[in-house]
Records
---
Amino acid sequence: MDNGKIERIIDKYPQDPGSLIQVLIDIQTELRWLPKKALNLVSKKLDVPMNRIQHIITFYKAFSAVPKGCHEVHVCTGTACHVRGATRILNAVEEHTGIGPGETDEDLKFSLDTVSCVGCCALGPVVVIDGEYHGNMGSAKTEEVLKTYE
């Protein structure tokens, strides 16, 4: 971890607790996770206790205290996607990546999570990879799409 990079992110904002969430978002965007060393630096520079920071990063699902893969895969398991085969899609992703929901592969290539709804029920089942939506998925189509991210 580059402390200089983290300090530059922090220094873009007012040095007070009100900047905390935006600073965490920027660090998460840059590193794809929030390492303990970065959180200690944020705590010191913004004068925010570590227990407050821990509370925030565990409350918001967008934050991760563990390394994430280069490509974040989200499989919708909401009602519309579920009845259209989301379980088969999730199984296809698990077979292709070798990981289950909440996990990241050893190469830090893929992270996998399930979500309750992505808001495009008519396209279900849906897989979102790095913010790109892929609808009307089947097992074979899921495999093809994942190969484009390798």
---
Amino acid sequence: MPPTASTPAAPRLHYAWVMVGITFLILLIGAGVRATPGVLIVPWEKEFGWSAATIGIAIAINIFLYGMIGPFAVAIIERFGLRTSVCCALIVLAAGTSATSAMHTPWQMMLLWGLVVGSGSGMVANVLGATVAGRWFGKRRGLVLGLLTASSATGQLVFLPVLAHLTVAHGWRTVSFTVAGATLVLVPLVVLLLRDRPSDLGLPRYGETEIQPQPVLTENPARRALRGLGMGLRSKDFWLLGGTFFICGASTNGLIGTHLIPACFDHGIPEVTAAGLLALMGICDLIGTTASGWLTDRFDSRKLLAWYYALRGLSLIFLPYSFDLSFYGLSLFAVFYGLDWIATVPPTVNLAGKAFGEENAALMFGWIAAMHQIGAASAAWLAGVARTGSGTYLAAFVAAGLLCLVAAMMSLFVGRRSEPEALMQPQPA
């Protein structure tokens, strides 16, 4: 039977995999830019005399916006398309990071690294991966989401040793120009390769045979995002998923991603060596989070989340004592913790889709991810305050570990009763 308009001949390589490749690079670079201040805390302390608590405010703003922009980013992408939205975000990132080379006061740091870079990176955060996976994949969505999520977390970690080396060898301003250049290189690739939906190319989603019609959306993006928040606030599952993701953010990029290098420096470990630990975590995360996506397609997401949070909690409680076990103790922590760095995303997106419907999964995950970044921002600031006040991160690490054990228990209560359709569907008059 010859191919028809509804069942086109499948190409050898579905364009969905090209979308995965370009999205992987976008998330990798975007997350690396957002995490850059983690290697600049010590140089800023030395040059400007700013305390860890002061710098932590700028990083907290950055992390907060990285998540809070997410649900609005989904609505903006729905309204204006992937290509336009991502290009604008990359240009904002390049402008913000390059301008930081001229800063010399704390308020400038908070404006540029906090507000500008945080807003730009929020447009190319995990919600972008969730959007691409939902639009382009009917099958293997969990695996793809795991891979894209891994790219985001890996970008925060793998680039840090290179940036730390540049900081030591050439100064922190070189780092600002380097990350700005990396974002600009992506712009022509996005223009050439990024497509909005499979129907733009006359294709069905990967794993399907029928082309889905492209929806016509005219709703104001802010109204669309806020309407999703209103529906989520009436859902028990939203609060459970948001609460666990708050703890997820506090225990990952807010604490470890921001403060592990200064913590190592406190114990006599050089910055470049400490950044190498983060790179090792990034490599392990690429394996662990991709595997998490594969597992999410096959096992109960609630149980997966419970295991992930419990194991992360134990590793964080172990961390303060690993400094006394030489560099090998920290390496053990890096491998164990890295495999679980952000493996929580695929099962969380899966549970959000079940709770609120596939068409709302990316938007609702955007609000859940906002809770993640609120937790990360809180940890970035409070851990800096703890170090400034006591000279150690012991309390911050142990508290984060205990919170992860609480999150493990919370995960088991997600989806205990069915409530999604009544919340997400219009009610009869």
---
Amino acid sequence: MYDSRMSEKFKIGLIQMTCGPDPAANLAKALGKIREAAQKGAQIICLQELFRSQYFCREENAELFALAEPIPGPSSGALGKIAKELGVVVIGSLFERRAAGVYHNTAVVMNSDGALLGKYRKMHIPDDPLYYEKFYFTPGDLGFVNFDTARGRIGVLICWDQWYPEAARLASLGGASVLFYPTAIGWHPAEKAQHGAAQLDAWRTIQRAHAIANGVYVAAVNRTGYEGTPESGLEFWGNSFVADPLGQVLAQASSGQEEILVVECDPQRCEETRRNWPFLRDRRIDAYQPILQRWLGE
């Protein structure tokens, strides 16, 4: 059933920040920035990937499983409390302990009444130098879900998911007007000079393409700052941004500074864009079965 509230404009807030070694301090910092974003008018506020800690996947260390927590748990509870106090929706990416030996990279969505509206478990799990996520995370099993928040219908994906058009398509087909991507991505020290500009441009371009192909807003919120040793650390490239349904960048943060972006989203822009570029209408859903295969060559 059509809900007229889903067509009203709303403001989203992206929090780009550095993270230190103390999870409690990172949580307190994030709560303060949520408050600041709300004061700037943000109604749906998204934190970066794994904001409670530094990006621990730079190494394979079993002791770091101690950073995980259940959901509901202390951090989701703290996010729900401030969401209720401020009357805002909060998206937070957490290291979820589901059971002994079963851990997920999970985004929680706390509604404006403080309730846990739902969660999304990261589906695509990378395993690259300094991004050893397969050591820690079980692939998500909740699908590409949408959430009917108090302000609008949204989809949430996480970092490595942002390279997959299938994920963006399926989240968009659920009716979301905004796709949020909590992110932790940066440059390897040895690669930045030669490949850094191209990597950043590719990251921005593919997400703008998701906005265009699906007629939705895309909001990517990355961390910033350097974490690790000079020889084996990551320089997170920031550049959090919001793109509209035509792929135009409405706001973008810097590379090396903490920033809060607040951007107005109008679901009617999705409607208008899809009327003029009816990509969803013209999809050949009868011909896409081969995409379920890993590879079509020999």
---
Amino acid sequence: MRRRSVHYAWLIAGVTFLVLLTGAGVRATPGVLILPLEREFGWTDATISGAVGVNLLLYGLMGPFAVAVMERFGLRRTVSAALLLLGLGAGLTFFMRAPWQLVLLWGFVVGSGSGMVALVLGAVVAERWFAKRRGLVLGLLTASSATGQLVFLPVLASLAVHLGWRAVSVALAAATLSLIPLVLIVLRDRPADIGLAAYGANAIEPGRQATQNPARRALSALGMGIKSFDFWLLAGTFFVCGASTNGLVGTHLIPFCGDHGIPEVQAAGLLAMMGVFDFFGTTGSGWLTDRIDSRFLLFWYYGLRGLSLIYLPFAFSFSFYGLPLFAMFYGLDWIATVPPTVRLAEKSFGKENAAVMFGWIAASHQIGAALSAWGAGYVRTVTGSYLDAFVTVGTICLVAAALVPFIGMGGRMRAASAMEVGGR
């Protein structure tokens, strides 16, 4: 009996999983650094949150351009360049002394690098390498991105407490740069490059390298997207997703807990708990996306998320079980919105354009994250409390849930328009 070998697509997915896990962990590190930087330099929460806002903004805006660059220059070169940026940004933080250096390194350098290996990378890999199990794979890759932001934080917080925040920068630089050789050896652009069909496909589909300028390709996709009612609904609801996850909870939960006397390492442990539950929640969301109407899923995701955020400020009164209950529940819903959002983008704009259009939708996600990161820090600086920030964002999540059923009511994009955006 002949033994079946593992399809190379799963190896590609495994390396992509590690890249997304590490990149997300680097991007989320400022949540650990807020309190140490306040203590050492006397910088305000608003000042540090401003740098985090730049980071989140670029993290999102790089997405559609990163997809276009991957189409033009390939996965290996694009991902390797992104990891190099992350390693340099994290490593040079060791020498940081002024707020403008924080903005430059963690805002611009790390923000740009992390944006190139963000959710759009998972979308590209899933679309190219998997004809079957695409939703499940996208769920796994998305989970790695969100889990990386959360699971690494207790380790990084412990480093910051016991060895100082500069030890965090050295550890991140080493972890990131060590992945570059693995990426260069393993990653390939498409299954056809090594004579394979995509996983679950019956025939090899020859890939064609894009010749269009990456910036023009990305901008032409945006031009088509802004004419679509579905694009605005997808971008608007994903804006709320970013505001409620990376921007608010990912950035401010640790100082929020600090305001209630909870130590940094213990607070980071709550984020790690969210990461563990997110892995199962987002992977399950990918599995469900292959089977259930994506609008139905998004309605419940945003609705339950809104209720949990409104609950959080009052969870501190429930002592032992209040915060762990929030962490478990919120973790399951952390970034479960990605697989159904990508599926709806594919239905609206076609398979060849799903990744680049999702890149712009993801940019909206990070604009929401950036505004929320800065806004919550500003609210705390002015009022001395995060209460208004969490209740406001929770309410906006409920509004997003109400908008989700209207996605698709404007009609699908015409095939001719979708081919025009393909730029091939």
